[in-house]
Amino acid sequence: MQNPEIIPHLFRTEYRKIVSVLCRRFGFDRMETAEDIASDTFLTAAQAWSYKGIPPNPTAWLYSVAKNKAKNHLQRNSIFENKISTEIQTAETYEPEIDLSLQNITDSQLQMMFAICHPAIPPEAQIGLSLRILCGFGIDEVAEAFLTNKETINKRLFRAKEKIRNEKIEIQMPGPAEIDNRLENVLTTIYLLFSEGYYSVSDNQVLRKDLCFEAMRLCHMLIENEGTNKPPVNALLSLMYFHASRFEARTDQNGGLILYEDQDTNLWNYDLVAKGAFYLNLATTGTQLSKYHIEASIAYWHTQKTDSKQKWENILQLYNRLLQIAYSPIAALNRTFALAKANSPEEAISEAKKLKLTGNQFYYTLLGELYTGIDNEQAKLNFEQALTLIKTPADNAIIQGKIDKLQN
């Protein structure tokens, strides 16, 4: 095989599309069958491409194989025979339709998003299923997103699938009255997907743009649908565009993370900044203020080159508001950086220590940065503690460089 990375990449982008279409065709209660056919398609690809080479259009090849495997399954299945026995008797030939056109893939994924977020399914299971089925996450990656282990995730997904069967949940768009309730979990899933790509610890690298752009694509699908084109959706897409605008400046040539203070602003993409501003403006319609509105506003200020007190005071106030409506320890940690810039590093150190995020590498990295120039010995100790928690070699090199600089 000329490009060994192509199958993992295609699995990430195409697996969920195949599963969504097959689930829509077979029924939601036969999700495991759809997953088996999709997985078997990629296994066939790995075997065939190893000997014959990668075909000119790998995606079309996958779709063709998936269709054939699905048709074979339907033709062997007694349910299939019972449902369409009349048609078989009146037609000379029958080809069970497996529609992998772009429009049907889009419709199937959109309906799958909301089917998975049915109120009968517990919220954590909704997100776990979405990451697994819609986003193509492996069990390891789902476990990483939930900060738990594979066994817990497997049990959670099994129970969710049992609930789907018992409740006879169908793959269809909810009515207007239900959309807002289910949309919150759909947006959470997209947000988690983007976050996994923005700092991908589970794949041993800092930035996976493919995941980020897939999250943005799913969000675009919601915006293109009249029933789901809501202010929080636009706010989330705005947030992702602002973050994406700094992709090229976030990592060095070895793939290591470059902290905000050290980024080359000439590498920021202002076309993406403009798109972020466009969707943030669309998000201001209506009266709803979501956490995505505030996080998008924070991200907007981070795309402004000027390092002024006004900039950091605005960011600090936005973090204060965010913590009021959607508290999270990571948001509180990020707030302390803005506090250092708006007020003083000493005040930020005091606030950061209160968080006691002793299992988080960024907690110690931030403390190391805040202590640098004030108490270099404490800075070194915190950077060393961060090293014990770091999961990527590139990050290890960055932090070790900071320690070396303090020692020279």
From TrEMBL:
Tell me which domain of life the UniProt entry assigns to the organism this sequence originates from. Answer: Bacteria
The RNA polymerase sigma-70 region domain covers which part of the protein? 10-78
Domain called DUF6596: residue spans: 182-283
Q: Name one GO biological process term.
A: DNA-templated transcription initiation
Which SUPFAM superfamilies does the entry link to?
A: Sigma2 domain of RNA polymerase sigma factors (SSF88946), Sigma3 and sigma4 domains of RNA polymerase sigma factors (SSF88659)
Name any one Pfam family assigned in the record: Sigma70_r2
InterPro entries in UniProt: DUF6596, RNA_pol_sigma-70_dom, RNA_pol_sigma70_r2, RNA_pol_sigma_r2, RNA_pol_sigma_r3/r4-like
- The organism encoding this protein is Mucilaginibacter rubeus
Q: Which PANTHER family match?
A: BLL6612 PROTEIN, BLL6612 PROTEIN-RELATED
Protein name as it appears in the record: Sigma-70 family RNA polymerase sigma factor
GO molecular-function terms, A-Z: DNA-binding transcription factor activity
